[in-house]
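WARN no homologs supplied; continuing
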Amino acid sequence: MNWRSISRRRLLRQATLASATGALVGMAPSPVLRAAEPTRAPSPRQDGLSVLEFGAAGDGRQDDTPAFEAALKAAAQSGGNVVRIPRGNYLIRGTLDVPENVVLEGYFRAPTARTQSQGSTLLAVADAGKADGQPFITLHQNSMLCGLTIFYPEQKQTNPPVPYPWTVRGIGDNCSLVDVLLVNPYQPDKTRR
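OK structure emitted
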């Protein structure tokens, strides 16, 4: 190795890594480094959790709110995890709170109106007519919605449409929506009054 071509920073980094692993001149790893390692929360299941494991039916008739709440709580207690929503229509009569470091993931990567009954669809019915109500889903820091459709099945074809609370609210940094389709939400424009 040509010592003249190595920067001081790189040399220090390699020496630090080598001493932590005990590879520098046959020395044992530093007990100070091992004692400083943080304790970790129980590791989450690699395949995530399914809302079906918590009693969700996905038939569009049974209120699946309690099953979603239980799955989201279990994911949070494991230190963060993915809550999977298999194909189905899940009636949600309440609101959902997605904790920090939890992903609520549906079946489709790019849902469209034509796939809304073939993928993972949340049927939002809470607070029709109450534009200032609690949002349907609240995301917290590092939480995410992915691959699902949120459909308002009780929306009326009127002018103006029936107002609903905001569909998604984010609290904290890095709240993400990826491949999420919203069908029939309506929030009136309060600046035009």
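The mean pLDDT is 81.
OK
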